[in-house]
Give the backbone structure.
Amino acid sequence: MTETPHVRHSRLVRVTHWLMTAAFLALLLSGLEIVLSHPRFYWGETGNDNTAVLFKIPVPASRNLVPTGYGYVLPDQNGWSRYLHFQSAWLLVLVGLAYLAAGLLNGHFRQNLVPNRADISWKQLALSVGGHLRFQRPSADEVWSYNVLQRLAYLLVIFVVFPMIIWTGLAMSPAFVSAVPAAVNILGGQQSARTLHFFLTGVLVLFLLVHVFMVILAGFRSRMRAMISGRAAEPVERV
Amino acid sequence: MSMLTRRKMITTGLATAAGASGLIVAAKLAKRYGLIPPDSGGVYGPGETLTYAAQRLLTRHSLAREFSRTQISEKPFANEVAPLGDDFKRLQEGGFAEWRLAVDGMVARPVSFSLAQLKSFPRRSHITMIQCEEGWSYIAEWTGVPLSHVLELAGTLPQARYIVYRSIQPDWWESIDMADALHPQTLLTLEMNGGELPVGFGGPLRLRVARQLGYKSVKYINSLTVTDNLKPFGKGLGSASPEGGYAWYAGV
């Protein structure tokens, strides 16, 4: 019990939150830049300009051989984008592992993220969904605790989406899959892994948008202060 | 409170000291076991070093996935290369009879082989995927002489650490470490899908590095240099790729 009562988020949560934010934004930017060099997606093991696409993104490419239908080619930014992508991926993985280890050891997941037994009922979930749909401002209680939908969303992102996006990323690596072929075989092929990696990015971007929107709805200044300094807007005495 | 602060200071101090000495030991070990890539300087050095070191520990002997004949791509894609130079065209007109592969550097016997000689060496085939860093890929059957065989004939000296290989095309050269150079799937490729290796795919001679991205599989190979140090080559970053902003190690 080293945390003083008015600290909303532990130092570990705050530091890892912002490191993850930096890594994620760098991954997103560099990832989109890499996609521009071949904005076509496939399913299965292989795919190239001579094969049918699963879908393509309607943007010009940064390479002149890709038949995009646009008359021009964007500047090639793949070199630094790839360097930045993998460096940020390492940051994300290492920070993520530290967060996971600490969260399991200090009870952060159990206390703050696993929903209360009472909240796991269709009635409670429906109430929470209804409140969210009406853009209801969170109650004072939620300054100090996450609501049930928030808990489920965070758990999903931490334990399902991030592991999946790291896995699909590794499944694209020719050297990694030489040692662990199952990583790509289970996904149905290297191009399937690439396509899934792209869709999972979409899920994370959606999460980011909703997350930021909710922060604004709940009070941007107070929530940002809580995640930066740890202090909550309305310090209430907790017993 | 003061007890707590002191305890905190001591733990933090110990943790920092342990972390710092751990890093120093890790860096020393990494250097000793050749886990530092030549482009480890600069902003992206830490990420590249982590990738290369982790993969060298995990994949030193692993084989690239091989596919069945039915999975060979019907329409492989020949990536663009710079317009072929006059040297290449002259050799092409002569049916590549005069094409030679020179091997020098840290070898007991510097040699040079004609294509006919290379074709007389024991050959190996594999059906593997070639992946471009852009994102596209295809599967083909590659047939050629294992690079390890040619290195053995030249007599690689024990201190060798890297193989530098060059295209006849100007400014196109790469290098790989011995783990990839001696890897059984690393082929001086002469054939593709049972026929001659087409010029568009790197014929008459392409070095296939099966566990790395396509840009390490340089087309139109005509010379190899065995070395223990990449500093004297080009700008000292290991190959032409880092000079153009791309990672030297492309196992990703």
The mean pLDDT of chain B is 94.
